[in-house]
């Protein structure tokens, strides 16, 4: 095997990892706990429709457009004096470029249309710092 080549590839990979991780910025927590369908928040809690447009103020949030469908994956448990935010991903043929992007949005700007989980079947878990990183 060519050890210098492997070593060079390893250094290149580490350099790439260091470069991508140093661009991440830890943002303020929006809440200290959240409600999810499972421990990993990988299953949607519900479907919602946007009642109005919302423009994301930073990378933790997603843009939503009126009448756009949204998969809701978690609901942040509000702290005193803070707004109520949910996280999700938009679904719409008109805004395909936004599909698959997870982010937060104000819960008062959407209306739940379909619940996939009963409130009694959800899991309350603490949020982690990684929930609020901006890349």
UniProtKB/TrEMBL annotation:
CDD domains: MIAL (cd11891). Residues 43-115 form the SH3 domain. The keyword Signal applies. Pfam families: SH3_2 (PF07653). Keywords: SH3 domain, Signal. Residues 1-24 form the signal peptide. Coiled coil: none annotated. This is SH3 domain-containing protein. It comes from Oncorhynchus tshawytscha (Chinook salmon).
